[in-house]
Amino acid sequence: MRTETRLDPQEHRVQSWRIGEIAHDFELIDVWRLPAQGRREEFGDLPALLLSEPTAKSATAKLTGFLFAVRLQAGQLLGWDDQALPIPGCTEMSLRERLPTDLPAPPIDPSDKHLDFQVVFQTDVEYAAELSNKTVHAVLHLGWVEDSPDQYHGQLGVYVKNRGRLGRLYMAAIAPFRHYVVYPALLRHVDQGWRRR
Fold first, then answer.
1. Are 171 and 160 in contact (CB under 8 A)?
2. pLDDT tens digit string along 165-185?
3. Closest Cα partner for 189 from 56, 88, 73?
4. Which of 11, 80, 177, 181 has its CA 20 to 30 A from that of 67?
5. Under a CB-based contact definition with an 8 Å cutoff, are residues 121 and 101 in contact?
6. How far apart are CA 146 and CA 43, in angstroms?
7. Percentage, residues of the chain above pLDDT 70
8. In this structure, what are the phi and psi dihedrals at residue 94, rounded to the nearest 5 degrees?
9. How far, in Å, are 8, 20, 60, 85 from residue 14 at the CA level?
10. Structure letter (DSSP) for residue 182
């Protein structure tokens, strides 16, 4: 079994994901193999688990919560999250506007927002949710990668379009926190939750 979790973006692009046609102008900045394996029909459990609140109160979980709280406070003080903005360089407000007719957008439930992400689409092997603010328009993408007949593992891709210089500076500033605090805590959360199902 493979032990590394961070992957080269090419390992995500080689899959026939629908997100590739929808977010073709976004940069794929992070790809992680998730500690979730199962049959094809089990994929539906993964999005809700990934975006759920961690129940563990480890030091890392507390630090991650603290970082999210700091970001929320900064967003409120600087007005980063005050208004809906179009995708950078586009007129569309949401990737939902780009969905082809064979991939209908699910209904929007205002109460069903996880970490401010709003679902774009979901299939039996893919899930995409987006977040938009004054720094970036980002997409969290989950895929179910086939390892052998009816055996799959989860894979996380993060796509981003920066809003100019502010977005580039913001993403550069948070890169160490994403890679060494947030993502490792997220992987542990998925691992624990997947085994507890």
1. yes
2. 988 998 998 899 888 888 888
3. 56
4. 11
5. no
6. 11
7. 79
8. -145, 150
9. 11, 10, 33, 31
10. I
Residue-wise pLDDT tens digits, 123-171: 999 999 999 988 899 999 999 999 999 899 999 999 999 998 988 998 9
Amino acid symbol at 29: I
In SS3 terms, 168-185 reads as HHHHHHHHHHHHHHHHHH
| Single-letter residue type at 64 | T
| CA nearest to 39, candidates 149, 150, 178, 127 | 150
Report residue 71 as tokens: 């970001």
Instruction: Inform me whether the pLDDT recorded for 3 exceeds 50.
Output: no
Based on the number of CB atoms within 10 Å of its own CB, is 73 exposed (0-12), middle (13-18) or buried (19 or more)?
exposed
Q: DSSP string spanning 63-118? A: HHHHHHHHHHHHHHHHTTTSS--PPTTSS-SSGGGG--TTSPPPPP-TT--BTTBE
pTM, 2 dp: 0.85
Beta strands in the chain, from DSSP E residues, in sequence order:
27-38, 118-122, 126-132, 136-148, 151-162
Tokens of 143: 């895929």
Q: Take residue 85 and report the two structure tokens written for it.
A: 């903005």
